[in-house]
């Protein structure tokens, strides 16, 4: 890059960052400006404009506010007060946002339950919500009923859009709303609250173990609702395509804010469909799209659509877009700007890729590093903990080195707070103390990253996903990236499995493939692009839809795959192994497994 291009890059970065910080500087922990104030201000400016489109009719800002007001007045009628919690178990629909917005008007906290979970996991989420009331969508009443018998707390269910739907003791939520006023309740109900107080509770994805309830303060909600809207210069003419679950921060706050914080409209879809996506985007005039990486992979893997370049989407915002998918996604869709970011619902580490540099999750220029709370520290893969020096301090990584990303906790700064989980023990596990100085406290992201000399950050892997094989560390994301280069691979999920008496774990890849898949071609690619220790020893070919192997927020499921391992007697799907004798992938039979376990066949 020449001098002129470098100057232009830095000027763009500093200008955009300054504009963002000016917009967000009013968000402070002790401010009395809350989430409901932001949305009420937007309603008052745009009452006649559509707030939601795509569910059969357009819903105006005025109608949105009226519905939220009824929810607020319902809460008051139930004797709920600020600080109390109401759980919400509902799919994607505009009413979802109206409910938590309405509850926030009177200071009531909403626990946004994952509508993909049932039974024990749902009962767990309801229990740790510490709520006395739960609002249930009628279509999900049978799913909700699976948790009723094992609930550890008393809770009144209010069923929306379908009467009581067979839940014992349930109330009709819609009838209750019709019995109360749609007038805006007095702000006095929340006047005593400050932005550092809880606005809602969101749950970790639960890819391993049961989910945890993360407290989302108004500071964080206000930040998420405005940050990406500001970056893409959202305006009342924008329409945000929303196919992500609204119970998660990426869609439910970051994406929602791109529309509702600035007078635009939200195109709410019940779920993502690769076959319907472009038709919906064109039909409803989408200008913005909120993604997670797997959605982009699904769109690229789908057959070319005649509308995939006739849309009006000007920016895609999200996280997890892998380097192998990025250029193909841009080429296929023609979307001019990709705003990749890094962050966690509860975390205090935030990065954003302002200039769409492929593969980067964000950038902190070296000359601005002190303005941010982020550091990468050397990490011990075996101990799964940061390395400490002789003085007991963590060791910062140099450019190019892989380390865990941590964020200094600065309670006075809305961007750098950590409000923790409902469970204090879970909160404590995320804290790292006496990191660089006695008494300092940092948040552990659990994510491994590296940065280059220009300050661009690149995601490497989750702590725990990286494993050791043949005395070397294997990053699952980097292996998945290589496998994703093959035209026949739609999705690659990489994990480590124990093998006989070998130390460490061997790599295994669970693949979703298409009709172009070819074992010999994949074998050649793997051996050409990956070092010997990183090559997956085992392949498992999924026979189901790709979405069956991701969570509700499109993160890869691994727990059950690791448990089933590479035993053909336990796995009903096709299994292959990288046979050193033939130099090819061969079907893994019980006989081959026995030879490997005995040591007759060295791998």
UniProtKB/TrEMBL annotation:
Membrane topology: Multi-pass membrane protein
Pfam families membership: AMP-binding
Cleaved signal peptide residues: none
Keywords from the named record: ATP-binding, Cell membrane, Ligase, Lipid transport, Membrane, Nucleotide-binding, Peroxisome, Transmembrane, Transmembrane helix, Transport
Transmembrane parts of this sequence: 246-268
Main location: membrane
AMP-dependent synthetase/ligase domain mapped to chain residues: 39-404
Entries under SUPFAM superfamilies matching the protein: Acetyl-CoA synthetase-like
GO cellular component, one term: plasma membrane
Keyword Ribonucleoprotein among record annotations: no
GO BP terms in the entry: long-chain fatty acid import into cell
Highest rank taxon of the organism: Bacteria
Annotated compartments: Cell membrane; Peroxisome membrane
GO function terms (MF aspect): ATP binding; long-chain fatty acid transmembrane transporter activity; long-chain fatty acid-CoA ligase activity
Family statement: Belongs to the ATP-dependent AMP-binding enzyme family.
Protein name: Long-chain-acyl-CoA synthetase
Organism from which the protein derives: Marinicauda algicola
